[in-house]
Write a structure and sequence with these properties.
It contains twelve helices and 14 strands. It is an alpha/beta fold and 386 residues long. The chain is globular and about 65 Å long.
Length: 386
């Protein structure tokens, strides 16, 4: 059951994460001294309509890094996670990235969102600084030419929407509409649904958009509810998606709602309350509540040992996993006496196809082998069924 309590408030979280040292990355031999901390830069939303995703992901990453640092870090060096708020706005993400690069961080980590990450991408390519585990399934970050720059841990939106469509068609639900965010994130999801339907000889019965960081869904609801769709796939943030579900149901819509993972499961559940009943969300990490899974078991044990008060959720588990992957890569780089940026990249590259705490690592997924995806359903009392 997903606890609805909030952990840190936003101001406390921003203050805390900005100065948090979390130890793992002995990477860069540039401006950082060999005995100094390994610095990771993270630009994500800590305020605004997508704040809970950034807060939760960073909490999970900090949980692992703190644990690693308490054990001595990597190569006797601590990892410092520097988190800057971008409010899920591309321009602010670019400014944060410029600051990180001027500070000569070892790597960038856990950027949140497709439009923000894509805006920062040209800077990364020019500086040749890796971005590890961005919280996005956007197609633009999965270009094979970016293999040594972007290390995607989560499945793509194409993988998520393919899983949705496969299940829906098997259930005989073929009239599928799409509600999506009007930017690169939403377009990736829209494209994924379209391609998945084409493989079954189908196409979306209609589509409507919402602007980024907006919950004004009035036009979208009017547009889609006249189509008689069985299902509306939502590719948005939790605020807009929750607003759409409420408005559509109030207008008499009786179909189902499917959401991609970026919506934020616990955040969507909290926003909808009892109205969350029956809403489906695809997941790119295992359930954080099932101790039968080795990753979840390790995560929950670390959370209990830490004494932290925040509740476990999918986004914090993803953050923990991302940090765990970085930690393993740093240890490998240190063992090879290459605890610098290029050593970290080489170690990450070597991890492709392996498993970390049972989770399959596919930085370079092969055709026909989608990343980890499973479907979950929300209940009206805050639970998640897988």
């Amino acid at each position: 059951m997903e606890d609805k309590r909030m952990g840190l408030n936003r101001r406390q979280f921003v203050t805390t994460t900005a100065g948090v040292t979390a130890g793992v990355l002995g990477l860069n031999s540039y401006a950082q001294e060999a005995t100094g901390p390994i610095v990771l830069g993270q630009s994500c939303a800590l305020t605004g309509p997508s704040a809970q995703l950034g807060i939760q992901f960073s909490q999970g990453a900090k949980l692992y890094f703190n644990q690693l640092n308490a054990q001595g870090g990597v190569g006797r060096r601590q990892v410092e996670l520097r988190t800057l708020d971008d409010g899920y706005e591309p321009d602010r993400c670019v400014a944060n990235t410029q600051k990180f690069l001027s500070d000569d961080v070892t790597a960038l980590f856990g950027y949140l969102g497709t439009p923000t990450s894509m805006a920062a991408l040209p800077l990364l390519q020019k500086a040749k600084v890796p971005l590890i585990a961005p919280l996005t399934g956007g197609a633009g970050l999965r270009d094979p030419k970016l293999a040594q720059i972007v290390f995607n841990l989560r499945a793509s939106y194409a993988d998520e929407t393919a899983m949705m469509v496969k299940q829906l068609v098997a259930l005989g639900l073929k009239k599928i509409a799409v509600f999506y965010q009007n930017d690169a994130y939403g377009q990736s999801g829209m494209d994924g649904v379209t391609v998945a339907l084409q493989s079954h000889g189908l196409r979306p019965v209609g589509a409507a958009t919402v602007e980024r960081n907006s919950t004004d869904v009035t036009k979208a609801v009017k547009s889609l509810l006249t189509l008689g769709s069985d299902v509306i796939v939502q590719v948005g943030t939790y605020g807009a998606s929750a607003a759409f579900v409420r408005a559509a149901r109030q207008a008499g819509y009786g179909g189902q709602f499917y959401n991609v993972s970026f919506v934020g499961t616990s955040a969507l559940s909290q926003e909808l309350g009892k109205e969350a009943e029956g809403v489906v969300v695809s997941q790119v990490v295992p359930s954080p509540f099932k101790t039968s899974n080795p990753l979840s078991r390790e995560f929950l044990a670390a959370l209990q040992k830490s004494g932290e008060a925040w509740p476990p959720n999918y986004s914090s588990l993803e953050g923990y996993l991302a940090a765990r992957v970085v930690g393993d890569a740093l240890k490998s780089a240190a063992a090879a006496n290459r605890l610098q940026r290029d050593g970290l990249v080489a170690a990450l590259d070597a991890m492709n196809g392996q498993r970390v705490a049972g989770f399959p690592i596919a930085f370079r997924p092969q055709a026909g082998k989608p990343g980890f995806v499973e479907l979950s359903m929300l209940t009206g009392d805050g639970k998640v069924r897988v």
